[in-house]
């Protein structure tokens, strides 16, 4: 098989890149290990920065987002048993929109199918070769068990942290920066209307908590837990009791409970592998970098990456290598800003089990300053709603 670009992974990064390339008249094919329904249903991030919303809308992919997305003009930092609102729109003129990552994936899959853009699901044994030449190859087994080979001009590795793309680059060619945190998130999806109209980030002596949402009927909630906790030890009753304790405030607030539809424990890490290019292999999204979810940056970073990558590949296939050569440096400037912001939000809000009283007082001091200084609140708001795309 011959194509111009082989895209590994059908998450938001891979699907959006494929769509952008096809719309620019570039042939490409997407390879995905999971089946179609799994990809459409897997629950991931839910906060879209304004630049993400604007990009999807400009591409004609924003109809459902506009109809079903939930725009927010602020968020709350809750500590000392009180709410402290960060007025995102007042401070920046921008909003965020709550719209699940799986909904963006559904929109992109539907757009591919409507236009006949190819996605190959349930592939296995994917391997890359000759990526340091002008004719890289991708070998895989398709969903019917047939061995296939794709010859292409470039490969886009959009297959996540555990994918095969980054390990296809020799270790000596990569510099890895990472930090693991001594806590994890227990995330639950509950069939109950949100208890508050905006997101609530909680700093509490028992640990961090987050009140979010996916739809007017579905609430997304998180608790800081030990990364070694057994999910089986967290009964529904225990989860609701802990959420109630951490979300408690002196003002009128009632946590709405309901059936828990899904729950899981996710470890927290920061990770960057650079450069994002090796020969004709380009990394994007979680294949290259991971942020703690506290800053709501992961999916938005992936979308920012592929917007830059689509332009770079389009120019490369016309014979202009300048954008491809600059791709890694261009993206890494935004990546490191997001890494810092995510680290800042994480360390300010979580309870570090190894921290002493001095460190905990520093956290409270930072929270009080952030919520009382317009300059500090504006800095948080600017980063949260999304800096302009490169």
The CATH homologous superfamily of the largest domain corresponds to: FAD/NAD(P)-binding domain
Average pLDDT metric? 96
Number of domains: 2
Uncertain segments: none
CATH architecture of the largest domain: 3-Layer(bba) Sandwich
> Helicity, in percent?
25-40%
| Largest sheet composition | 8 strands, mixed
The gross shape turns out to be globular
Instruction: Compute the number of helices.
Output: 11
The portion of residues forming beta strands comes to 25-35%
Which strand order spans the largest sheet, edge to edge or round the barrel?
6-5-14-15-16-13-17-20
Q: And the CATH topology of the largest domain?
A: FAD/NAD(P)-binding domain
What Rg do the Cα atoms give?
21 Å
Straight-line distance between termini: 34 Å
CATH class type of the largest domain: Alpha Beta
Number of strands: 20
Structural class: alpha+beta
Describe it:
This protein has 390 residues and is α+β, with helices and mostly antiparallel strands. It folds into two domains: 5-72 and 97-177 and 269-345, FAD/NAD(P)-binding domain, CATH 3.50.50.60; 180-268 and 352-385, D-Amino Acid Oxidase, subunit A, domain 2 (D-Amino Acid Oxidase, Chain A, domain 2). Helix content is 36%, strand content 27%. The protein contains eleven helices and 20 strands. It has helices at 12-23, 36-41, 50-58, 63-68, 88-92, 101-115, 236-247, 298-316, 322-349, 357-372, 374-385, and strands at 5-8, 28-31, 47-48, 70-72, 75-79, 82-86, 96-98, 119-120, 124-129, 137-141, 147-151, 154-157, 175-191, 199-202, 209-213, 218-225, 260-274, 277-278, 281-283, 289-290. An eight-stranded mixed beta sheet has the order 6-5-14-15-16-13-17-20. The protein has a six-stranded mixed beta sheet with strand order 8-2-1-12-19-18. Strand 9 (124-129) and strand 10 form a beta hairpin. Helix 1 (12-23) packs parallel to helix 8 (298-316) and helix 10 (357-372) crosses helix 11. The longest helix has 28 residues, at 322-349. It starts with a strand and ends in a 5-residue tail after the last helix. The relative contact order is 0.17. The mean pLDDT is 96.
């Amino acid at each position: 098989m011959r194509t111009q670009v082989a895209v590994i992974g059908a998450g938001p990064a891979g699907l959006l890149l494929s769509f952008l390339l096809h719309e620019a008249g570039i042939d490409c094919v997407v390879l995905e290990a999971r089946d179609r329904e799994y990809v459409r249903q897997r629950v991931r991030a839910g906060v879209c920065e304004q630049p993400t919303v604007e990009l999807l809308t400009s591409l004609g992919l924003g109809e459902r987002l506009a109809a079903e997305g939930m725009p927010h003009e602020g968020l709350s930092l809750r500590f000392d048993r009180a709410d402290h609102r960060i007025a995102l729109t007042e401070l920046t003129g921008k909003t965020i929109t709550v719209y699940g990552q799986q909904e963006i994936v559904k929109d992109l899959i539907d757009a591919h199918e409507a236009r006949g853009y190819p996605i190959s699901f349930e592939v296995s044994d994917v391997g890359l070769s000759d990526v340091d030449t002008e004719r890289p190859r991708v070998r895989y087994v398709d969903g019917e068990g047939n061995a296939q080979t794709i010859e292409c001009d470039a490969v886009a590795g959009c297959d996540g942290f555990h994918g095969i793309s980054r390990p296809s680059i020799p270790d000596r060619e990569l510099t890895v920066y990472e930090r693991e945190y001594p806590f994890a998130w227990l995330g639950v999806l509950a069939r109950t209307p949100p208890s508050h109209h905006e997101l609530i980030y909680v700093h509490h002596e028992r640990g961090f908590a987050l009140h979010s949402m996916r739809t007017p009927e579905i609430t997304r909630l998180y608790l800081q837990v030990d990364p070694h906790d057994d999910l089986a030890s967290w009964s529904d009753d225990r989860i609701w009791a802990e959420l109630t304790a951490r979300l408690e405030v002196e003002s009128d607030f009632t946590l709405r409970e309901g059936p828990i539809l899904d729950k899981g424990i996710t470890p927290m890490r920061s990770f960057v592998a650079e450069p994002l290019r090796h020969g004709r292999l380009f990394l994007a999204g979680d294949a290259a970098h991971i942020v703690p979810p506290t800053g709501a940056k992961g999916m938005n970073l992936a979308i920012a990456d592929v917007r830059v990558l689509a332009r770079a590949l389009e120019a490369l296939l016309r014979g202009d290598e300048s954008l491809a050569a600059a791709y890694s440096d261009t993206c890494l400037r935004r990546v490191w800003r997001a890494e810092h912001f995510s680290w800042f939000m994480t360390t300010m809000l979580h309870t570090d089990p190894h921290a002493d009283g001095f460190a905990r007082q520093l956290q409270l001091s930072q929270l009080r300053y952030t919520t009382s200084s317009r300059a500090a609140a504006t800095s948080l708001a600017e980063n949260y709603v999304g800096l302009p795309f490169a």
